[in-house]
Design goal:
The protein is mainly alpha-helical. Helices cover about 60% and strands about 0% of the residues. The chain has 10 helices and 2 strands, in the order αββααααααααα. α5 runs antiparallel to α6 and α8 runs antiparallel to α9. The radius of gyration is 23 Å and the shape is elongated.
């Protein structure tokens, strides 16, 4: 093994992967605010300059660590329902519970990067949009609609947006504890509202227009 390759590995693990794993663990434990190259290198047990042998800059490393944090969090939350199986109520409740748990785990990490837009830009570049929970929720609803288990005119994009907004609002006070306390409705109520709406089942016809005499 050449000296260059030897220096790029430790105990069979590439230093690239070691640095990503170290930064990911730091994010999971302490969040992203205040992360420095020196701190990451110290935790990984390598020299500060090693990072630049494997990443273009700190932003790339943090973005890749953030992506691994998202993947690890989603893996811990388990599988999402399959369209056509189970009940709509149960499946949608599972999606919302998944989204709530995901937001509680990830929003604090992302909020620590508000002042670091370059990290968020790098994250957007390397992440796969199809893997986002919101897009998986939309895909699930579209599949249920195609199967005829939802009305053909169902606004699945709008429904998904409302459910994602509910998850955002529910974890808001964990990120901004100085804001007014929020008492979100229970998941079952939100699912019922999403599936059945708030309008009467047999809405009254619009009033007739009276022509001017």
């Amino acid at each position: 093994m050449s000296p260059r390759k030897a220096a790029a590995q430790r105990d069979g693990q590439s230093l690239h992967d070691l640095l990503v794993e170290t930064a990911q663990k730091m994010i999971a434990t302490h969040g992203t605010a205040g992360m420095t190259v020196r701190e990451i290198a110290r935790m990984a047990g390598v020299a500060d300059g090693v990072l630049y042998n494997h990443f273009s800059d700190k932003e790339e490393l943090v973005a890749r660590a953030l992506l691994e944090h998202v993947r690890a969090t989603e893996a811990e939350l388990g599988e999402l329902p399959v369209a056509g199986e189970g009940t709509l109520t149960g499946n949608l409740r599972r999606h919302v519970e998944f989204g709530l748990a995901l937001h509680k785990a990830l929003v604090p990490a992302f909020s620590g990067l508000v002042a670091q837009p370059r990290v968020l830009e790098r994250f957007a570049e390397i992440s796969e949009r199809s893997g986002y929970w919101r897009d998986r929720l939309v895909a699930y609803l579209e599949a249920e609609r195609a199967l005829g288990r939802l009305r053909v005119e169902s606004e699945v994009d709008a429904t998904a947006a409302m459910l994602v907004g509910y998850c955002h609002a529910s974890v808001l006070t964990t990120v901004f504890p100085h804001t007014a306390p929020l008492d979100p409705p229970p998941v079952n109520s939100v699912v019922t509202a999403a599936l059945h709406g708030i309008a009467p089942r047999d809405p009254e016809p619009p009033p007739e227009t009276v022509a001017d005499g």
